[in-house]
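Supplementary Data S3. Sequence and structure tokens for construct A.
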Amino acid sequence: MEKTDKKLTFKHYIIIGSMLFGMFFGAGNLIFPIHLGQLAGGHWLTAGLGFLLTGTLLPLLGIIAISITRSTGIYDLAKPIGHRYASFFMILTCATLGPLFATPRTATTPFQISIATHISASQEPWYLLGYSLIFFLLAGFFSRKPTGIVDAIGKILNPAFLILLAIIFGIAFTNPMGSASSAHITSDYQNGALLNGFLQGYNTMDALAALLFGIVVVTSIRSFGQNKPSSIAKTAAKSSLLSIALEAFIYLVLIWIGATSLTHFKISADGGIAFSQIANHFMGLPGEIILAVMATLTCLTTAVGLLTSFAEALHEKFPKISYKSWDMISCIASFLIANIGLEQIIAWSTPMLMFLYPLAITLIILSIASPLFNRDPIVYRLTTIFTIIPALIDALNSVPAIISEQGFAQQILKWDQMYLPFAKYGMDWLLPALIGLLAGLIIHYVQPSIKRSKLKTE
């Protein structure tokens, strides 16, 4: 018999909301809205709304999906599609949030903010090598035997970082760099600002993080006396109002600042450089130094969390390899990949995200809607089968030119543009996914009636 739910106080909602904010807010993600603002220019608000859909709303839906299905994690959530697929999706997500992209980015982002703008291009590889070596030696040391020290530092640094952002925002509002509405709009954002903003939100990787770590939030909600899946989902939704509002405000202001910065700066290669330039413009060298130190420390705590989570998840799945071995593998791989530089990490992570995000989006929607079709595997499988091929083509379309301009790739992309709607926007998976969902639902609802009619005739 299921326990009755306890009534939560406002304090409980604040605690859960703070946990959600702490999980998804990070210095590393702040470079993307600034860069988006520079790209979108006068269409900054439209692009910003698209960014918020994938950057703030989708992660919340991921946590709601875990609570509704009572899943213990990403593997359990994807299990209706098949055990092999669930393992494949979990490993790929762990690798993306771990040593392939997210963890190396924790070193390259503060490097771009703190050092890259003050050295020549020829010096950059050597400085990055030294910086990332020290960074991952520290991250590896703290992650080999996790303690509360790093968490405690993170709890102090995140509020301090918010105060620094508030100061920059205050100066930006009272003394803006220029007009955002009249800022130059790049070609991709002339007519497709909303969709491009939506796709840029993939870079936060927060929806993937929600699927991987959302069980932590769900467990915390249960500890407050919420037991029914519907109650947990409602509590997560209510608690997130404050955290989503704050995160959305931060993102939108950064996008606006990015757009206004075009009066003084050219579009930067990445948001890290732009962030450093903007901090220097508003607060001078002292402000830039404070930003650099805080970005480094907050990203270091994030790196420790990612290394720990990767090692724990893979050790649980493959227990023959120890936690420390997985941690070392992740640390060494992250260090090596970090040295290709932030711009290249973003360039190569884009195709992976273009592949993973459609699968994550459909999995989240299916999980939330699963009570309507009793979590029938046929609905999950057909939707995923119809989604995975277009998602692969989207990934191919976004890989660097060395691959995407090859003859075989051009043939596939030409076919894609001809036959699949929204292909030019990177959303060609949408219609096939809907077809797969519809086919799955038809089979789910028709099969029982066919079985009943057979029984009557026998």
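Construct B, processed identically:
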Amino acid sequence: MIFAGPLLRRFKNIPFSPARWPFFYGWVIIVAGIAGILVSIPGQTIGVSVFTDHLLGALDISRVNLSTAYMVGTIISGFCIPWAGRLYDRYGVRPVAMMSGFLLGMTLLYLSNIAGVVNLVSGIFSAGGLPVVVFILMTAGFFMLRFLGQGVLTMVSRNMVMKWFEKRRGFANAILGITVSFGFSYSPRALDMLIQNYTWQQAWEITGIIACVGFVVFAFVFFRDNPVKYGLVPDGKVTKTGKDNDPNIPLLKEYNLKEAKATYSFWIFNLSLALQALYVTAFTFHVISIFNVSGYDDRAAITIFLPASVIAVLFHFFGSWLTDYLKLKYFLLFQVLGMLISMTALILLDVSPFYRWMMIFGNGIMNGMFGVLSAVTWPRFFGLKHLGAISGYAMSYMVIGSALGPFMFSLSYRYTGSYDMATVVCIAVALTLFILGFKADNVNRKK
């Protein structure tokens, strides 16, 4: 990597310079960022879940052990994401995105041939060791999927967009969020169509080739770091500073990770996002059981997602737009309030059908605000210079939370026969964060 710096500077305008485009290149960056996040879908829970039953049918592994392998792989990936964030800060978005796309594609090709790999590796073990071999190989595959997909590609694609906008960062995030939401909503159906038309192995092979060939070329051509490297400015033009109450007032300083971690606001925002990752993943993982315990059928559980996603898209779009004008702590309070509404409805779900709709509304609010805060907070509070390290560290908490949530709720059900105990713990944490959130101001503003 000794010559990486000079090489990156030499190739920054190949195959073209963003400054030569007839309009602000930031709009192209939004499209590129959307593509990067959509390519990460095979590494997201929503993308992996489509293949779960096919893996169970092809491998000598139980559902519990497969879920455990997924949890372990996700937790390990969470600890590695901060390292990837530092690489992003050092080398920029293009090489990191290209390498992530290539490795994600190779991982998908590996998983498409997992049965053959298991047979090859298990040849050196006795027959009794086969389940252990399957568990280790699947844990490795899940680690790479989660690290590269949910972690690195999502992080660098979103951060790239945030760097190209300042005064209009919220508006850019609104476009990004609403497009990605619809893409994610359609992805299970698209992946299932691939499986039905071909096989589950070929579906992974197709998506793997798209990632390691198509996306790598796409990222090389269109991905670019922040506009100042090309003689441009965020938003495409120099904007006036604004008044002291302007939430986008220029930064007083660029924070590094150590300095960001020393601030009060970092932890309030970070823990709120991590708590939601824990709760939402647990809720989604156990949703049918949660509704069955409360006397509802499977359909009542599954059909909550569409109306909740519509609410989330609306809150995300208008919330992102409003962040250009309002302090982020108000959106944080609204996000935690959405969690509290959903959690309260979960406990009271068996009392009345009203609480099912209350849950839908709460889920829509918190999911909409999550997309806003996870993208806009870190560049506004701490600057762009160390954005990869800071956002990567924050994302590691979300990833680990998403891994622990289903396990925590499983323990609650095993020992109490319901999910109320785990939910009460989440409510206590959410209430604490809501109270503390009133003081979670932007550390990069004049007092």
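The chain is about 75% helix and 0% strand. Residues 75 and 277 are 13 Å apart (CA to CA).
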